[in-house]
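Per-residue structure
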Amino acid sequence: QVQLVESGGGLVQAGGSLRLSCAASGRTFRRYNMGWFRQAPGKEREFVAAVTWGGGTTIYADSVKGRFTISRDNAKNTVFLQMNSLKPEDTAEYYCAADLRTIVPPTTKKEDYECWGQGTQVTVSS
């Protein structure tokens, strides 16, 4: 298992930027694809971005493509989400997650992710 702790959320004005971090425990972190999801009040948890175990492949939701960038530093057991040009509709609780299957492409399906962090709140004011 992998334990995940997110940080970096906060309140920002529309057009601003935030960088979320997700620190993982365990030596096997580098084996797993990682994802970011978000959940706004009253809405389903939705996919934001994912990155393969080595960082070579990334995928994004259409709503964040061109504004958000996912990356990882396996030496530091950390995955990042750089969020630029933030919009009020980006307001949500953001979660990182680990897909414990190995040698698979990155996935948008939350059911494929077994380990989740506790979340960090991002609020974008208009």
Remarks:
- Residues 32 and 102 are 6 Å apart (CA to CA).
